[in-house]
């Protein structure tokens, strides 16, 4: 599979770019969001995708020491599944806090522009990032578990000026966090994944005087935000819920343009992304303003364990 990108191309000197830190979902990995990542990068963003080591990635590895790095002796971390009888919420709560710290640590590395030990041998010159990132224009975006990570990161690190949560899975969140961050937040949801208990938790983030937006993409499924939706044919895609009723390219286009409009507004970008401001309000035939989920008769679910029965990915 080819992507419309040139490996290790030098950056233009004298220019500063806005930065996006991207957080993957449960059971996913850093490269499975190349479609949305490339699309945002093509509009002038530096996009850095974190591969989390909290046990939520499908598989990831690290080097114990410099010698291991030099010899390629990898220490693997695999997806941490629930043990028999184990409650999900405590595990996910600990993971989301680690994930947010990893997003901040990634930001530290990117802003320092110095070589780091025990990183993947990608032959990438970190020095080219020096003086290339606009420190006042940094956002965090995440899918599913990554959506919860967005909220936690906004709470923990004020350097993230705004966040976009793609089909966020809210179970990992401590409800105290909902009202304790001030940065703008944009929920972009699929039509088929969301359910009352999850939406109720999202709505608790809607605090008077704080910028909060929510839209839903008609006919979309949870995996419309990841590359899985482009890697399968129509029959297989629908069979495994990797494709929705909406064309995958249309869903990506809506997600990208709505995100760009939101980022321009809240990062103060001098671009033309405001031409898509109407998408933030859900004003498109393929969009639903807010949510398609009726929560009016589900108040009891606010403290319910029903959400515990749902896995994010």
Automatic annotation (TrEMBL):
Subcellular location: Secreted, Extracellular space
One Gene Ontology molecular-function label: 1-alkyl-2-acetylglycerophosphocholine esterase activity
Main location group: secreted
EC number: 3.1.1.47
Enzyme class: hydrolase
Protein keywords: Glycoprotein, Hydrolase, Lipid degradation, Lipid metabolism, Phospholipid degradation, Phospholipid metabolism, Secreted, Signal
GO BP, one annotated term: phospholipid catabolic process
Positions annotated as active site in the UniProt record: 144, 167, 222
Matching Pfam families: PAF-AH_p_II
GO cellular component: extracellular region
Catalysed reactions, semicolon-separated: 1-O-dodecyl-2-acetyl-sn-glycero-3-phosphocholine + H2O = 1-O-dodecyl-sn-glycero-3-phosphocholine + acetate + H(+); 1-hexadecanoyl-2-(10-hydroperoxy-8E-octadecenoyl)-sn-glycero-3-phosphocholine + H2O = 10-hydroperoxy-(8E)-octadecenoate + 1-hexadecanoyl-sn-glycero-3-phosphocholine + H(+); 1-hexadecanoyl-2-glutaroyl-sn-glycero-3-phosphocholine + H2O = glutarate + 1-hexadecanoyl-sn-glycero-3-phosphocholine + H(+); 1-hexadecanoyl-2-butanoyl-sn-glycero-3-phosphocholine + H2O = butanoate + 1-hexadecanoyl-sn-glycero-3-phosphocholine + H(+)
Protein family: Belongs to the AB hydrolase superfamily. Lipase family.
Name this protein carries in UniProt: Platelet-activating factor acetylhydrolase
Species this chain originates from: Phyllostomus discolor (pale spear-nosed bat)
